[in-house]
Amino acid sequence: MNELIKITKNKNNEQVVSARELHKILGVKTRFAEWWIQNSRLLIEHEDFEGVVTTAPYNPKFPDKVQQLKDYAVTADNAKHLAMQSQTKKSREIRDYFIACEKELKLQQLPMTLDQQIAAIATGYGSVKQELVEVQDKVTDLTERFGLPATNAAILNNTRNIHIIRFLGGKDSKAYHELGRKVFSEFGRDFKDNFGVPRYDSIPLSQYDEAIAYTKSWQPSYNTMISIRNTNMQMEFD
């Protein structure tokens, strides 16, 4: 269908046309302002039309000036009535054009049949699949850059605590109270050196399993082990 007049949509998603363009295409003999006053008396502003400002075509007599013109964005339904009221040779053609556009819009809004839905899915599957892959890549990248999710970080933290407390002889041991801070610090240094991170919970999610395994197999230094043993032995003799 050839476009007789440009149809756009307003903020309410309604089809609208320029009153000035309609006036021109209809071939009305009277001036636009006069024609509008005569034919828009029954129209309601902000419902049937909205006042807008347009610019006049370039005028070589005034190359440095831009002339602003008062225009109206009229809903297609009311533009159809304006066309018939104008009673020009183009009136019926414009009216029929608006009716055809309305029918086309309604067809576009009808729910698709099952076959149409399958065809649409098949057509868009490739692009949707690619978009999903891109989203997954972005999520992976963000996870890698921002460290462990809170749940994984909590599990790693708990694994570290259980493992180190066991080496110290439990929470009731003398070594736990006197050397606990030192042993935890030693683990932190070893862990950060091994994984090259500023904090033990800053490792990428891709290294989470490796971090758990490292934590479970970590041992304090020989000198620290001796200190733990001697400290706990003192408690036994006290």
Description of the molecule:
This is ORF6C domain-containing protein. It comes from Lactococcus lactis. InterPro entries: AntA/B_antirep, ORF6C_dom. It holds the Pfam family ORF6C. By secondary structure, the chain is α+β, with helices and mostly antiparallel strands. The chain has two domains: 102 residues, no CATH class; 91 residues, no CATH class. It contains nine helices and four strands. It has a four-stranded antiparallel β-sheet with strand order 1-2-4-3. Strand 1 and strand 2 form a beta hairpin. Helix 3 runs antiparallel to helix 4, helix 6 crosses helix 7 and helix 6 packs parallel to helix 8. The chain is rod-shaped and about 110 Å long. The termini are far apart. The relative contact order is 0.08. The model has no long low-confidence stretch (mean pLDDT 84).
Can you summarize this structure?
The chain contains 9 helices and 4 strands; from the N terminus they run ββααββααααααα. It has 238 residues and is α+β, with helices and mostly antiparallel strands. It folds into 2 domains: 8-109, no CATH class; 147-237, no CATH class.
